[in-house]
Specification:
The chain starts with a helix and ends with a helix. The protein folds into two domains: 1-32; 39-154, Glutaredoxin, CATH 3.40.30. It contains six helices and five strands. It has a five-stranded mixed beta sheet, with helices on both faces. It is 54% helix and 17% strand.
Length: 158
């Protein structure tokens, strides 16, 4: 009888271990954020600015952190909206940067980011056209984008 209990216990432990490993494989797929906005992946803002210049577009930058609830809400509600994504993708090079990882702390210091999210619209030289600290939802973000585009049309004067 003791052998039966030991065998059962080993079987349960083995099944739990296998189950945990399979959850680790599935978990990143489930937690992956789906966004309709095409955010350029780059360690350097200079690469983003080069693409913006080549495509004659302005740059939209989203400074975020992993723990920022308004950032997460924008990811879920704003950046997944197809109309908003079409507007941003058609008119801007979009760049999303974690302010606490990689080159994020350095860029945060350069742009004096003090709250999250911080949303910036930049010209092709990296000069700030518009800045907003805090979340911007659909109508406000689109209005900001249109305002930034109007600066592009008349030429940006610092």
């Amino acid at each position: 009888m003791n052998k039966h209990i030991i065998f059962s216990a080993l079987f349960i432990i083995t099944m739990l271990t296998v189950g945990c490993k399979s959850k680790e494989i599935v978990r990143p797929i489930i937690q992956e954020k789906l966004t309709a906005v095409d955010f350029m992946q780059s360690d350097k803002l200079s690469k983003v600015l080069d693409v913006a210049k080549a495509e004659n577009k302005l740059v939209f930058v989203d400074f975020y952190t992993d723990w920022c609830l308004p950032c997460q809400l924008m990811d879920e509600d704003v950046f997944t909206d197809q109309d908003m994504a079409d507007f941003l993708n058609d008119n801007f090079i979009n760049y999303k940067i974690n302010a606490e990882k990689g080159g994020g702390p350095e860029l945060s210091a350069i742009f004096e980011v003090k709250a999250f999210p911080t949303l910036l619209f930049l010209d092709e030289k990296g000069r700030v056209i518009l800045r907003k600290q805090g979340a911007a939802y659909h109508s406000e973000l689109k209005a900001m984008g249109l305002q930034a585009l109007s600066h592009k049309d008349v030429g940006f004067q610092k």
